[in-house]
Every structure is written in structure tokens, then in C-alpha cells.
Amino acid sequence: MNPIEILRRSRSAPHARQGGALVICLLLLGLLSFFAGSVYRLTVPEVASSIYQRNERMAFYNAEAGVQYIISQLSAGLKTGALKLTSAVERVNYTAPEGYQFDPVYTLTRLPNNKWMTFVVTGRFEKAAAVIQATVSRPRLLTDAGIFGNISLTVQPNNEIFSYNSNDTPAPLETDSTHEANIGSNELLSMLNNIFLDGICLLGESLFGVEPLPPSGYPSEDVDRIEPDPLGARNGPLGSLFNYYNNPVRNNNAAAGIANNAINLHNHDVMTLPGGVYYLTSLDLGSGSTLKIGGTPDNPTVIFLHGPMTSQPNSDINVTNGLPTNFLIYSDASDEIRIQPNNDFRGLIYAPYASLRFQPGGSLYGVFWGNTAILLPNNDIFIDLALLDDFLSTNVRLEQWKQLIE
Fold this sequence. Notes:
Low-confidence stretches: 1-17
Number of domains: 2
Oligomer: single chain
Distance between the termini: 90 Å
Strand content: 35-45%
Order of helices and strands: HEEEEEEEEEEEHEEEEEEEEEEEEEHE
Largest sheet: 17 strands, parallel
Mean pLDDT: 90
């Protein structure tokens, strides 16, 4: 065979193989282009959706931050007195400060329970938006306990404890009870037999974190330590008022005929205290005497008591319009406050360092707050929720929230 022909054949074989490889490469490139186009068509919408979900999440975070900002502004406004939060619809104007992204908030609306308010915040990020409806409240400074003894609260047999709201029902019957007759203590809550309690026992904590034992046979709830003096009778805002009104120029003692900062009614004496502020170092009502309280919603009768209080049997503290919210007794002393048998009392007794003692056979309407408290047998007590609602914290609290669909 011609060697040249052999050589020619040996060279043509690789060319043939190279041509086949080229075809295979072209096929692979075609397949890759096809799959790349498919992947592109699948990935672009997914990426866009992922970006929008991220933006929605950021918008939600901005709405959440807006809620916290509004709450802080409400608390600040209450502390300075710029806000009252007493209207059914409260007009405000809160815009997003630097670093926040939410729409302005202009209104807060009070809910039907008259305790909570709601507002809406719309957070934004890029083109996404998230809407949160927040519900807030002002916690009661006196918690929910209408009768409180920090160290001890003792309820003896045959007491009946109800609750009502004097704004809605000025003269309540037992059937008007709202089932919120809560009582409490941080260290000892003793409930004896045959007691009717239309509420629960609130069990706080001692300074050492020890909870009182729940009274057998009565509903109870463990709560955080209850602040014994939330109004600051000695070293807080209320204490400052004691100092302020311990001055004959600033109180109404002289106008009511009070001498030496003391009221001492003998048997069957009658005295009237119109609406105003009085500073007393003692209050003693003799048997059969009457102290008429002429306070009104706009001008309640307020006593700053720096000493003991005793009402003898069958004496009477007569609140003219019957509303406990119109008669307030504040005490910064550790002296006993004693309501003797067969007495009616309507009002607030706030005495966080004193011992409260309620003798048998009384009818008590209001709120009673002491270092220790004892209810002897056969009293009818109506806790007035309107009084509890008169003392609200300036620290606004978030109660609940929900995301709305825009």
C-alpha cells in the first residue's frame, strides 16, 4: 500500500473525531441555553417575591417601632400634663421622627369598656406597607384591689364584699355587683368562714419574694409585688401635697371652723365640710355625731390626715350626694384609723402606713388601702371601681395588638 495514502488516512481520522466533538459541544451549549432560560424564567419572579416579602417584613418592623414610639409619647404627655386621655376620641399629632418610617397618627379612640384606647400605625418600607392596630391602657395605681393590707388583711365571718361603679350606679344593690370585688395583700390574706366575696384574692409578694398562702375556699391569683404606697404619701407626689397644705393660707380649715388642725366632735355634734382641702392632725367623731361632706365632682372634700382617726358608735359621715369619689382621706401617719360599729362610710381611705380597723355592722362604700386592715364581722362593703379609675399611671401599657390587612 502506498505509504502516502496510509499517511493521508491517518490524518483524516482525527478530523472526523473533532467534527463529532464539535457537534456534541454545540448540542450541550444548546441544552445549557435552554435550561438557563428556564431557570431565568423561574427565578426572576421568585426573587421579586422574596424582595417584596423582605420589604413587607421591614414595613411591619417599622409599624411595630411606631407603636412603641407612640406609647412613649403618650406616657411623656401624661407626665407633663399635656395629655389627659379622658375623651372618647383623643386628638394627637405624632409624626415619625428621624430613623422611623410610619404614617402620622392623629387619633386615639376609647373602646366601649372605657378603660382601653386604640390607635393604628402604618409602617412603610420601599413600596410595602404594614398596618398594626394597638390597644393601650393606663394601669390603675392601686392595682385592682379595692381593699388592701400590705402586711396583712383579715376578713372575719359574715362580711359581704361587692363591687360597683358609682358613676353608673350611685346607690347599688347587691344584685348590681360587677364581680370585681378584689382584695389583696403582699404577706398575709386571712379569710374566715361564711364570707361572700364577689371577686378574687390578689396575692402579691413580700420584700423577700415570698407569696402569701392562698385562703382556702376563695378564688385567688398570684400577682407581682403590689406597691404598698403607689401615691407616695411620704416621699412622693402625695407627700409633697402634705407639705403644701400644712399651711393655713393654703387649706380651708379656717373657713370650716377648724382650730389647731383638729376635728373633735362631741356626742351629737354636727359639722359640715364643704368641698375643699383640709389638713388635720386628728379626726374624732363622738357617738351620734355627724360630719357632713359637701364635696362635688368638681370640688371634692379632701382631708390630709397626719394622725389618728376614730368614729365612735353610731356616728355618721354623711356624703351629701352619696358618691365616694367626692370624699378622699389621705394619711401619711402610722396611727390607727378606726371606723366604729354601725357606721356608714363612703369615700377613699388611703393610709399605706396605718392600721385600718372596721368594727361590726358597718356599710362601707369606696376603696380602703392600709398597711394592715381588718374587717370585723357583719359588714357590707361595696368597692367603688370609679375610685380605682381615678388613680391611673402615667405609664401607658400595651394591652394587645393585631396586624390589619391594608
